[in-house]
Amino acid sequence: MMEGSKKRASIAMLSIVALLAAACSGNEGGTDTKPEASKMEAPVTLNILSNFSIAQPPGPDNPVTKEFEKKTNTKLNITWISDGVFNDKLNVLLASGDLPDLIKLPDTTSIPQFQTMVKQGAFWDLTPFLKEYKHLMESPKQIWDNTKINGKNYVVPIVRPLEVGGLAIRRDWLDKLGLKMPTTMDELYTVMKTFKEKEPDGKKDTYGYTMRGNDIIDNIYNGSNGKWKVVNGKLVDVTLEPTMREALLFKKRLFDEGLIPPDFAVMKDNQYWDLATSGRAGMTSETIEALWRWTYDQWKRDPKVTWEPLVSVAASQGQFTGQGSGMIGVAAIPKSVSEAKVKKILSLLDFGASAEGHVLSNYGIEGVHHKKEDGFYVTNDQGVKDSLGPGAFGKLFMKYDPYMYAFAPGMPKDVFERNKKIIDAKSKISIPNSAVGLVSETNLKVGSDFTKKINDMKTQVIMGKSNIDAWDKLVAELKQDANYQKIIQEMNASYKERLASK
């Protein structure tokens, strides 16, 4: 095991070194060539860094990569980095200053070094070019506005649907136990408790909820999508609100009654997934398309398994379902890249945002990865083998499609149609995250310390290591803390600036 770990670490280090070397040799200009350009022109080599979130990334000879190259007259040298270590690699790469032609980032704010480098002029302001790329411009204005820096577009958002997922439940467990789909927190508690007591799959230590993404419980109680909520035209930090206290007490009740894993605070994603896919948990939080991947895996053992997304759940603030940011990350182009190559890169991303590029990224090549029946793409196992979908190619190439997360390779049409109805229902009431793309300089410097202190206290209260009075004391301290209050002021200033620029 140790030898294997060392080998994987060595491979990871070699890949980043190779990327740096490629970046040095690749930033030597290029030709502004649209996808329909003459085949006589030599392919333009583009060095790209991106993340992936599936078992294996596309290999260098992947047929879909080759098809993208053919359609865009490029040679794509893509270095794929696993999500688990992606931010660490980004920090190393940005610190080196030796960047590839196109670099993927999680967003515009979570990597402080990127914001600094933008201010130093290290990345292209793409605003003057973008109007020429119609497919990119088809994405909702809201998504472009959320990714602006100082009112300008330094990045291209890699789009995703605004309705992405949330809480999900074993529908077959509900049916087996004669329960209805929960729509309130009281009903949710009753369902969790029944799941634990009745053990529908016959597994000992069955839990009501995996606790993956359990901040969604906070959001339901607060009626907010994340830390910030717009009240009377201002951003309010819900950490300081009484509703956050209610959410903590609800989660403490789940812990005390054994309805959630006792070690939830230190569990990793694969452990949450194992609980859900082994029949030991009846509820989790996940994107709609990922739920199908779980179902597909479980169907091999039990064809009755049905994971179904919840539309919304209500607490004192009313029915809640959160809206996504509309992106899975952003792509930026270093200023070391020539203007001609900038246009070539934008042309590549534009093709990826077209209907043709979208199909290629998600469903692959007709006859190889899919066949089309009654307007529906029926994918085969080769699509999984060749890394199709949002977990790899979709991290770079995607057309805005409100139903993209309704589908995953191998999904039958009836599940797809069910998911579309759930997405339509969510879209009527979903609440956006008002703070996406907003920046507080104080938060960049000390915000992580506050976040850790807050999250640690939440965990201690839930697990009974501290009582609720300790939470009340922390809230009182934050209300008096100069730096914390400065973060609130700066976030509001950034929010007002965004409203003024629209």
3D architecture notes:
- The chain is of the alpha+beta class and 502 residues long.
- 47% of the residues lie in helices and 14% in strands.
- The strands form 5 sheets. It has a 5-stranded mixed beta sheet, with helices on both faces. The protein has a 3-stranded antiparallel beta sheet with strand order 8-5-9.
- A hairpin with a 2-residue loop joins strand 6 and strand 7.
- The longest helix has 25 residues, at 2-26.
- The termini are far apart.
Which ranges are low-confidence, i.e. pLDDT below 50, for 5 or more consecutive residues? Answer: 1-38
Biggest sheet, spatial arrangement of strands: 2-1-3-12-4
Q: Helical residue percent?
A: 40-55%
Strand percentage, roughly?
5-15%
State the major sheet.
Answer: 5 strands, mixed
**Global shape:** globular
Number of helices: 20
Mean pLDDT: 89
**Cα separation of the termini:** 54 Å
DSSP, total strands: 14
Cα Rg: 23 Å
* Structural class determined from secondary elements: alpha+beta
Question: Which descriptors apply to this entry?
Answer:
14 strands; globular; 502 residues; 20 helices; alpha+beta
Q: What is the topological layout?
A:
Layout: H1 2-26, E1 44-52, H2 63-72, E2 74-82, H3 83-96, E3 102-105, H4 112-119, H5 127-130, H6 134-137, H7 141-146, E4 155-159, E5 165-170, H8 171-177, H9 185-198, H10 215-222, E6 228-231, E7 234-237, H11 242-256, H12 269-277, E8 283-287, H13 288-299, E9 307-309, E10 313-315, E11 318-320, E12 327-332, H14 339-352, H15 355-363, E13 370-373, E14 376-379, H16 381-385, H17 413-427, H18 441-462, H19 468-480, H20 482-501
Parallel strand pairs: 1-2, 1-3
Antiparallel strand pairs: 3-12, 4-12, 5-8, 5-9, 6-7, 10-11, 13-14
